[in-house]
Here is the input.
Amino acid sequence: MLWDLDGTIIDSEPLWLNTEQQMLARYGLKLTDEVVEKMVGIDLRDGAQLFQRLGVPLTVSEIIGEWVSGVTEQMLRGEAAWRPGARELLAEVRAAGVRNALVTMSTFAIAKRVTDLLPAGTFDTVVARDHVTRGKPHPDAYLMAAEQLGVSAADCLAFEDSRTGLTAASAAGAVSVGVKHLQELHDVPAHAVIPSLLGFGFADPQGGSVLSVFAANYKREPHPGGYCEV
Here is the structure.
C-alpha cells in the first residue's frame, strides 16, 4: 500500500499554512483562499516558485528551507494531529502482512519525524521530495515507491487527500482512493472517495474495506471524483 503523508496520515496542513502565512506577512503579502487552494498537496518547489511570483524575495531553496524549519519546530512542539483512523488502519494492514510505502512531497527529514512516532516497521520504505526530480502530480514518486517494494504500482492501493496526489497516484497506475479533507475531490482521477479512514478496515466482507475497494477497481481506469463514495 502507498500512503500520502500530509493531510492523509497527519493533519500537518495547518502547520504548513501557518509557516507560509508568516513568511508572506513579513513581506506585506496575504495568504488568500486562492493561494491556499493552490498550495494544498503541491510540490515544494512549485509552491516556492508560486511564492516568488507573489513577491517573496527569496530563492526557492531559501523558501523551502524556512518552511521545513517552521513545520519541524511546530511538530516538535506536538502541534501536528493524526488524521482519524490513519494509525489504526496502518496497524491493521501491517498486522496482515501488507507492505507499506510512504510517498510524500515533504522532505525526508519531516517524513522521518512522523515515522519515528509510529511503531517500528510500519513503513518498508519512504519516498520523499528529496528523492525524485519531479514531484506530484507527476507519478515518479509513486513509481519509485512501488519499485522499492518490489511490485508494480498497478498492484498497489494508494491513499491521498489532495487532487495533486490523486493525479500522481492514478498516473502511476495505482488503485487510488481519495480521503476527504481540505479539498473537493470531484474533478480528479480516483477509483473511490471515502469520507475518512476511520472505520475503513482491512477486510470487511460487507464492502467498504481496503480489500473490497482494491478488488473492485483492480486494473480499472480511474474516474473523475471516484466511482463511488464508500
Summary: The two ends are 18 Å apart (CA to CA). Strands lie at 2-3, 10-11, 81-82, 101-103, 125-127, 157-160, 175-179, 189-190, 192-194, 223-224.
